[in-house]
Amino acid sequence: MVAIPGGTFKMGSTDKEPFHKADEAPVRNVTVSPFFMAEVEVTWDQYWAFHGQTMSEGRTPPETVYANNSNPDVDAISGPTPPFGFPDQGWGAGDRPAITMTHYAAETFCQWLSKQTGKKYRLPTEAEWEYAARGGTETPYFFTGNPKDFSDQGSGVSSSMQNRQHQFIRDLREEQQKQNSRAGRSESEPVRFEEYVG
Question: Which residues are within 8 A (CB) of 169 and not within 5 positions of it... i.e. 6 or more apart?
């Protein structure tokens, strides 16, 4: 987990931006409080450990399961129904990023992880995710240029774009070291978010 300092940024997009969607408007100033965010995605190995301990047959409505899981006295977490088809969609499993689960499944994973570790885990809000993914920029993305120029290149994230995002994280790391809030992280250990827009 990486400590992200709070701040204010312009969230949303104008109708002149490439790939603009109507629900991204209007652009507005949003302030986020400091928060923690994972540097990398949850892997399939981690997700299957969760699923193996919590699988259900889907006979209980999701809202009932979520309410039961939210009870502070609960001694076990009920999981979502199994994914259909090939959940990895051919991208690979193991230490590859877990993909295709529902929002509900991701929330339930956070509840389970919180119970397992005794620490509070949650999904980032839309504003927190966008703040971290933008990497301190005011451009439509954390890189300069037209995103349509990059849309046909694999994950859509070139190495130059990743370098820009990684620089933002390095800057955060320097600020955190000044504030002595990075206890337990080796100086040689790189800090970066992986594939946040990939």
Answer: 2, 135, 191, 192, 193
Is the torsion defined by CA of 100, 25, 171, 163 positive or negative?
Answer: positive
Residue 73: HSE in the Cβ half-sphere, 13 Å Cα cutoff: 0
| Tens digits of residue pLDDT in 98-142 | 888 888 889 989 999 999 999 999 999 999 988 888 877 777 766
Q: Which amino acid is at 11?
A: M
Q: Report which secondary-structure segment, H or E, holds 165.
A: helix 159-178
Residues with Cβ within 8 Å of 40's Cβ and at least 6 positions away in sequence, in order, are 97, 193, 194
Q: Which long-range contacts (CB under 8 A, 24 or more apart) does 24-30 make?
A: 30/127, 30/131
**Model pTM score:** 0.66
